[in-house]
Structure to design on (348 residues):
């Protein structure tokens, strides 16, 4: 009698030969159903599908449930969990020290719009090349659900207490401060978030993606405007997005309908298919007006609000040498004793 041995199924790998397990992190300790977990899944898929070497990525975060999430993806990447609201300073330092790293920041609405607002501002102003994902649930999840600065006026806590202060809209603020890539998405919108993350990887500069990410434990009730139900009912997508990476043929798959391609820094393209409205994502004033209008209507406007591929990143502005500063030998970065003596002499 002969036995047939079935070979194990061959692992599916990406263009650099890695399977998806290489892009995962530890098992999540966040609440089941937390929007942040869905975002971590999209990050894993994005980096796997783009075939990015995980060890070329540096993850940065502050403090919060959102800021814990980098532990749950890209376990082979570099990571720095900084102080609450201070991720931008740490990320800026690391990315200037090693320009070859691909920076990915994950933060919360508290981390960015409350304690970290000043740091966020300067990050935007400098156009530091970093993917900046705000996991926005309108509350401080980690400290048991107090309102954050992005909570809408009139929305309520679980106890019924209303928020009396107007919200900061992180996308509108980023636009006003000169951000070069601004997008909004929803943790429940898999396809849109995937395309946005990929476009952010290809962008040369700061890519702000504000993702409404419901906190199922403290902010998913009827009075909340950051609950799954509210966002599902009020999401208004500006367009449909497809991302065509540089290693794929751009000429394929152009279907019917009005399509606009935005060429990104690394040769990839963001393919924007018109939905109901005319929208030009390269017009900053139009983006601000659209956000203003959505706010009045109580809508959650998602998609690429604005992209500007012409502004130099902080690394370009500083005209840094190609070799990462962190790997330059002492002979190139430390003045000799003679040079120091000469300077001291001049100061006498
Ligand atoms: C300097 C400092 N101030 C306050 C805190 C307390 N704290 C920890 S997390 C947090 C807010 C987290 O909210 P958010 O950034 O929105 O993240 P989420 O937990 O909602 O994902 C606060 C106030 C802290 N850890 N450090
Ligand atoms: S408390 Fe809220 S934000 Fe934190 S893990 Fe749970 S659901 Fe997510
Ligand atoms: Mg929060």
């Amino acid at each position: 009698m002969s036995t047939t041995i079935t070979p194990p199924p061959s692992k599916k790998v990406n263009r650099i030969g890695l399977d998806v397990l290489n892009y995962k992190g530890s098992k999540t300790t966040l609440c089941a159903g937390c929007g942040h977990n869905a975002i971590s899944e999209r990050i894993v898929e994005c980096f796997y599908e783009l075939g990015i070497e995980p060890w070329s990525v540096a993850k940065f975060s502050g403090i919060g449930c959102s800021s814990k999430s980098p532990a749950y993806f890209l376990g082979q990447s570099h990571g720095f969990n900084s102080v609450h609201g201070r991720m931008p300073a740490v990320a800026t330092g690391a990315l200037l020290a090693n320009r070859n790293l691909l920076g990915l920041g994950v933060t919360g609405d508290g981390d960015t719009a409350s304690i970290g607002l000043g740091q966020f501002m300067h990050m935007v102003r400098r156009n530091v090349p970093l993917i900046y994902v705000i996991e926005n649930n309108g509350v401080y999840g980690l400290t048991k659900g107090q309102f954050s600065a992005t909570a809408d006026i009139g929305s309520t806590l679980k106890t019924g207490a209303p928020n009396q202060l107007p919200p900061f809209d992180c996308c509108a603020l980023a636009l006003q401060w000169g951000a070069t890539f601004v997008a909004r998405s929803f943790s429940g919108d898999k396809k849109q978030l995937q395309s946005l993350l990929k476009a952010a990887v290809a962008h040369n500069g700061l890519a702000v993606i504000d993702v409404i990410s419901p906190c199922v434990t403290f902010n998913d009730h009827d009075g909340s405007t950051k609950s799954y139900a509210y966002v599902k009912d009020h999401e208004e997508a500006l367009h449909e997005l497809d991302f065509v990476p540089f290693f794929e043929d751009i000429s394929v798959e152009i279907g019917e309908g009005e399509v606009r391609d935005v060429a990104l820094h690394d040769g990839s393209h963001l393919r924007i298919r018109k939905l109901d409205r005319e929208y030009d994502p390269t017009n900053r004033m139009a983006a601000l007006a659209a956000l203003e209008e959505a706010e009045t209507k109580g809508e959650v406007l998602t998609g690429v609000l604005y992209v500007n591929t012409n502004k130099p990143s902080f690394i370009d502005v500083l005209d840094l040498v190609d070799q990462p500063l962190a790997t330059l030998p002492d002979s190139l970065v430390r003045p000799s004793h003679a040079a120091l003596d000469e300077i001291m002499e001049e100061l006498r």
